[in-house]
Specification:
The chain is an all-alpha fold and 382 residues long. It is built from 14 helices and no strands. The termini are far apart.
């Protein structure tokens, strides 16, 4: 056996063990790393407001606290308003449910010539097996729901804590990061940080603008239909549909449909149709234009980044994919060498045809079985 083989085997086993240990640690800490990533982008989003307030003489920590306090007050007020509205509408729906049930049963009896009664339908529903199983499963799942809610609150608190530190100690964090890099690398890191702040702020601005447009459009519809709580529902649709990826549109449209159903069941169908039509307009017209202008990336790249972010990290990846890709694209754009484009018609979507006879004449000659060389027409012309 060569003298170096035992040492190489020990080294290989040690490297394999370190790799397995690192993989296990990364798998265990993936949740923490995801929360830190979300907190970092949240700190980048509020960085312009904090920097503007600190530039006027306010301490950076106090400025960060005031920004977070404003966001927290707005969020709590919005949740309380929607909660009271939803509770009132649920009470009204429960009180009016017998009338709705009677109208449905009368329609069924007239249409299908049946003889159903509300008492029979209620008894069949209350004594059905699927309802009893649903109640039992709901009772056993209360503990799981409570655990999930507490875990979500703890995760939200962790994200806000990290984002507060990132925003309040931003200059100190950049100084600590640049202290371990040579001067040339320091300039690149600072430039990348500045680009990330600009792109993330542009993304938040575009989302806020689309939320405003969506809220105004749905407010006009709800007022025209006479649906109560139209301002609160419009704010709900605008915020939820824009800042909750993937399922935000469905969550945003479900509540106005529910409230509209209490007024008139047909109004719920009107709201559903408007939500579907407006979503197509937003996806194919509004969002590509606003995203390409504020974040400065191609609409196809924005759509692909959202799909890739969702596949990698779920809803979190869909939320931060566009600002991350925009930052990377802007940073790498400074290091990509570009050349002057040649003056060719094909660059502008044209075709460079061979000079000679017109295209129609050549096609006609080819159909006749030849290229037309040496042939004459009835007048003797070639």
């Amino acid at each position: 056996m060569p003298a170096w083989l035992p040492r190489a085997m020990v080294m290989a086993l040690a490297l394999y063990g370190c790799f397995q240990l690192g993989s296990w640690a990364f798998y265990q800490l993936i949740g923490l790393l995801t929360n830190i990533l979300i907190a970092f982008f949240l700190a980048l989003a509020i960085e312009p407001a904090v920097s503007r307030m600190s530039a006027h003489g306010m301490r950076r920590g106090l400025a960060t606290f005031l920004v977070f306090l404003a966001v927290l007050i707005a969020g709590i007020g919005f949740v309380l308003l929607l909660g009271s509205m939803l509770a009132g509408q649920i009470v009204d729906m429960v009180e009016e449910f017998p009338k709705y049930l009677d109208s449905v049963i009368n329609w069924v009896n007239q249409t299908f010539h049946t003889e159903l009664s509300r008492v029979e339908v209620q008894d069949s529903l209350l004594h059905s097996d699927w309802l009893q199983k649903y109640v039992q499963n709901s009772a056993t799942g209360v503990l799981d729901v409570s655990t999930t809610v507490l875990g979500g609150l703890f995760r939200l608190l962790m994200i806000f804590l990290f984002s507060f530190y990132f925003a309040a100690d931003g200059p100190r964090l950049r100084r600590a990061l640049c202290s371990v890099l040579p001067p040339a690398r320091q300039a690149e890191v600072l430039r990348a940080w500045e680009i990330a702040v600009d792109k993330t702020g542009g993304y938040i601005y575009s989302r806020g603008l689309m939320a405003l447009i969506s809220g105004v459009a749905h407010y006009i519809l709800l007022v025209a239909l006479g649906v109560p709580y139209a301002p609160a529902l419009a704010v709900w649709v605008g915020l939820v549909s824009q800042f909750i990826p993937t399922i935000g549109t469905y969550l945003a449209g479900a509540l106005p449909m529910l409230i509209a159903f209490t007024v008139n069941p047909w109004y719920a169908l009107w709201v559903l149709g408007f939500v579907v039509v407006y979503q197509q307009f937003e996806n194919y017209v509004l969002q590509p234009k606003l995203t390409s202008k504020t974040v400065d990336i191609h609409p196809a790249v924005a759509f692909g980044s959202v799909v890739a972010g969702t596949a990698l990290m779920g809803a979190v990846g869909a939320l931060i994919a566009i600002p991350a890709v925009a930052t990377l694209q802007a940073f790498l754009g400074a290091y990509v060498k570009r050349y002057d484009v040649t003056d060719d018609p094909r660059v502008h979507g044209g075709h460079r045809w061979r000079r000679g006879r017109p295209v129609v004449s050549r096609i006609r000659s080819a159909v006749r079985g030849g290229d037309g060389v040496g042939r004459t027409d009835a007048d003797g012309n070639p």
